[in-house]
Amino acid sequence: MKRNIICACAIAAALALAPRIGNAKDLTLAGIVFQQDQFFRAIQLGMEAGAKANGATLLEANYNKAEKEAGLIDTYIARGVDGIVISPISANASAPALRRALAKGIKIVTYNSGVEGDVASAFLTSQQEDLGKGSGIAAATFIKKQLGGMARVAVLEFKSQFPEIAAQRVGGFVDQIKGAGDVKVVADQDAWLAEKAVAVASDIITANPDINIIYAANEGGTVGAVQAVRRAGKQGKIFVFGVDGSEQLANFLLDPDDVLQATTAQQPFEMGKQAVQAAVDVINGKSVDKMAIVPVLALSRTDQKGVQAFKDMIEAYQ
After folding, report:
1. pTM exceeding 0.85
2. What is residue 189's DSSP assignment?
3. Cα separation of 33 and 311, whole Å?
């Protein structure tokens, strides 16, 4: 993947605005998050909590395009940080820049998505397949009990952004529903941003009037799918199953319109906190697990108390 160096002034501005936690004499970590949605915001808050607990300085930056990632990493190399905590945009394409950092003695910890080779000292993640599996189990039960074992399914994913992760989430879901009866996936398209997903899902609904299930593999796709069903007036006819957890998705599950049935969430605050702790431990010469699994959390409209508890937790992060 082609990499361009990000404009130095933009980098400087991003770093100048980043909050610094701890004292200058303490360890300095770079916490890099991909885009600013509720998931990555909770990751960021977890990083801040982890840095504060260790008296470390945390430099924060975010990006939403692949070509900016290498520029951020090179900037942090020049700055001489002790560690970089990052969710790489690609297991392959992100590796060269992170190897440059490693060659300078900077410790690398990845979360959410990994990097090829022996680059990262630790990798914290949820099992991506489990995210799809959790929603797939709920969907399989719904198809059997509510749809008489007949489902025509549309899938919204994000394989052009994170192909490995998207494949695992979709595969985990499909593996669960295929044994629920007469089940067919009739459409599969990329649409990971909410506004794009509304348009894509709306077109799919128009082209496939027999669809009764939409599965979206991330937060934006789930939001867009719910909105598309509402716009089409298909409440009670098309049901959405998703991935990720946010206040908005919790509200969808609590809404009596019966569109969103279930989603499976990661625990981003805990992931961010643990990732920073792993970086601090590695820098201080302590042993850490090469891979740590942060459990996923199944949320369903059949468990309103559980959904409300999750919503309360999300609101506490804000």
Report:
1. no
2. E
3. 22
